[in-house]
Amino acid sequence: MRKILVIGIGAGNPEHMTVQAINALNRADVLLIPTKGAEKAFLADARRDICDRFLSNDACRILDYAVPVRRADGSYEDGVHDWHHAIAAIYERTLANEVGEDQTLGLLVWGDPMLYDSTLRIVEHVRAAGRVAFEMEVIPGITSVQALCAGHGIALNRIGLPVEITTGRRLSEGWPEGARDALVMLDGVQAFRTVEDPEAEIWWGAYLGTPHEILLSGRLSEMAETIAETRRTAREEHGWIMDTYLIRRPASESEEGAA
Q1: Which letter does DSSP use for residue 111 in this model?
Q2: Can you give the pTM of this predicted structure?
Q3: Residue 253 has pLDDT above 70, yes or no
Q4: Alpha-carbon span 214 to 60, nearest angstrom
Q5: Domains in the chain, ordered, with CATH?
Q6: Sheet harboring 134-139: ordered strands across?
Q7: 22 Cα distance to chain centroid
C-alpha cells in the first residue's frame, strides 16, 4: 500500500530537523514541495536546502506544486474549505500518478503538523474521497512557539497558569476569556495593537529560526508601534512575513497564590 509521511521540518533552521525527520526524509520515494510564488520563494528554497543537506536517497524524486490561491470572497470558513480541497486534489493526483503502490510520498511541513497547519486535515480529505488507498505516518517537528521561547530565553507558561494558543484573527475579536497568557500565531491584522492592558508584556519574533530572525520584547504599550513598524519594514524587504508572539497580562493575587 502507498504511504504518506507528514514530516515536521522545524521553524526555518535546517538544524531543527530531528533524527526521526531525517530518517523519514530518506524513506520517501517522492517528496512534494509547495511553491507560493516569488514573494515566498524562501519557503520552498528552505525545503530544498533541507533536502540538499540531509537527503541521501538518490532514488528519491522531488516534485514542486503551486499552492492554489485561497479565495477572499465569501466567508472565511468557506474559503478555507475550498482551498483545502484544491490542495487535496493535488495530493491525490500525485499519489495516483507519481507514487507506486508500494512507495512513499513525503510532505515537508513547516514547524509541526499538529499546530496551526492543515496538512493532516487535507490528507484526511484525500482518504475520505476513497479513490487512492494509503497509510499515513506523522513526524513531529520544532514549532515557532518553541523557537520564540528559545530565542527570548523564556518559559512558555508561568507556574500554575495555562497558555491560550490562538490566532491574530481571534485575538482581534477580543482577549480570550479567562486567559492571562496568549500565544498568537497567523496574525495578519497586528491584533496585538488591540490589547489595551497597560501592564501587559509581549515577546515577539519574526522569521524565527531563519537568518532573517527578529526578536523584540517589552511592555506592550511601549513596544506595539515599534513592532508594527519593524513588521512593516521587514515585509517590504522580504515580500512576506511570519511572526509569532506571547502576551502576558498580570496575574491576579488569587492566581499568584494558587501558583
Answers
A1: B
A2: 0.92
A3: no
A4: 35
A5: 2-142 (3.40.1010.10), 145-258 (3.30.950.10)
A6: 61-66, 30-35, 104-109, 2-8, 134-139
A7: 19
